[in-house]
Amino acid sequence: QVQLQESGPGLVKPSETLSLTCTVSGYSISSGGYYWAWIRQSPGKGLEWIGSIYQSGSTYYNPSLKSRVTISVDTSKNQFSLRLNSVTAADTAVYYCARETFGVVSGWFDPWGQGTLVTVSS
Amino acid sequence: DIQMTQSPSSLSASVGDRVTITCRASQGISSYLAWFQQKPGKAPKSLIYAASILQSGVPSRFSGSGSGTDFTLTISSLQPEDFATYYCQQYNSYPITFGQGTRLEIK
Description:
heterodimer, A: 122 residues, mainly beta, 7-stranded mixed beta sheet, 0% helix, 55% strand, B: 107 residues, 4-stranded antiparallel beta sheet
């Protein structure tokens, strides 16, 4: 059974960098076959896809966040990570990681991690 | 970006009722549509992908249909555990986008 678990600081100061890690168990990222994604959810914007990465390191990002986002993968630790820089209060959200099954251009998400609340505040 | 619009935004129903939720895409997305269920404080759970294929383990009272721009999620006989918020998501094109959600409440 594949499980994902987010970890990282729950409070980030404005203008600083949000960093989260997703640890995958029950499936080896290096096996390929899936992308690995970050999604966030806030009351104001609902569910928003942030970006995805393949085991090779190939990434694709939401254009609305692309200038501030970096997603990386560490197959030796079976983890992938999110960095979002220059954060503002608008980046306050619950952040989820998920496995992405690809269709043609992009994919759907299953399973999801439990989510972690990140608050941007001084 | 493709806009996904769900209706209704909220819905009250009783156990045993048949319920239908609609999702409309701002442009054609073939059958590249997924549905999720989310309960308070929990992560979304995948129900359906490719518009009509049930995710493994999802009860058969859930069904999905549609293609192009108009899609539906139907729950044939509501159970107490089905009261939740439901989201659609398109994966026909980039960026991936979600509907705003439909909150299903107990009448």
